[in-house]
Amino acid sequence: MKRIFLFVPLVLGITFGYAQEKKQWPPELTEVWEPKPPQITPGEENAPPSDAIVLFDGSNLDEWTAPNGRPAKWEVEGDAVTVVPGRRSIQTKRSFGDCQLHIEFRTPQEVQGEGQDSGNSGIFLQGRYEVQVLNNYDNETYVNGMVSSIYKQHIPLVNASRPRGEWQTYDIIYTAPRFNEDGMLIKPAYITVLYNGVLTLNHVEIKGSTEYIGLPKYMPHGEGPLQLQDHGNRVSYRNIWIREL
């Protein structure tokens, strides 16, 4: 018992002495001044910041192409571009990896179908990994295929949909997968999705390509285009910009 009583004051003394010594540290020891983050101008009301690449501002499809390299033939009107069913998906001429993506979409106000046939399109990061676009305000489907899901992989935390015919907003933070020189996966892709300003996917792991049939799988690749899907519904997009991270 005597040893215990002697030990306690000793420990308290060491702890107090350490705290006293820490208080004497000058604050400059923990201040970091370099390198300085670059200065940018933020956008207002979903406008792109000054360091963003504007992919579509309503004027033209100069940043886009059909997958076969021919001109993109979706309909541009007002500030929006709309899927023309049968004219195939479109994709960016540039390729991207890690990124912050802002994109707004609108599903048709008139009912065109139900389930996966109601305002269906998709946003494919690196041409492989789909964030689902769908009307789920008044339309039921399997939950790992609903709007803001990673198709057939991750179910959204909540359904933050506005009514069909209204503009919806995605803000996406994406980290691309990494492969070694032999093509082996060393780090999977991760994604965070805010849908209409609400967090629906919180840094979830993408398990591989988003397959309609079968299980996801990774194939080695580098940077890839952003692709918007023609799924046969007249879904519209606007205000598309991206920041390379």
Task: Please provide a written account of the structure.
This protein is mainly β and 245 residues long. It has a single domain (53-244), classed as Jelly Rolls (Sandwich), CATH 2.60.120.560. It is built from one helix and 15 strands; from the N terminus they run αβββββββββββββββ. The strands form three sheets. Strands 1, 3, 4, 6, 9, 12, 13 and 15 form an eight-stranded antiparallel sheet that branches. Strands 2-5-14-7-8 form a five-stranded antiparallel sheet, with no helix packed on it. The radius of gyration is 24 Å and the shape is globular. Mean pLDDT is 92; it is low at 4-14.
Question: How would you describe this structure in keywords?
Answer:
single chain, 245 residues, mainly beta, Jelly Rolls, eight-stranded antiparallel sheet, five-stranded antiparallel sheet, 1 helix, 9% helix, globular
Strand content: 25-35%
CATH superfamily: Exo-inulinase, domain 1
Quaternary structure type: single chain
> Which class do the helix and strand fractions yield?
mainly beta
User: How many separate structural domains?
Assistant: 1
From the 3D coordinates, which CATH architecture would you assign? Sandwich
Helix count equals: 1
Q: Report the count of strand segments.
A: 15
Question: What are the low-pLDDT stretches, counting only 5+ consecutive residues below 50?
Answer: 4-14
CATH topology: Jelly Rolls
How large is the radius of gyration?
24 Å
Instruction: Let me know the largest β-sheet.
Output: 8 strands, antiparallel
Task: Report how far apart the termini are.
Answer: 61 Å
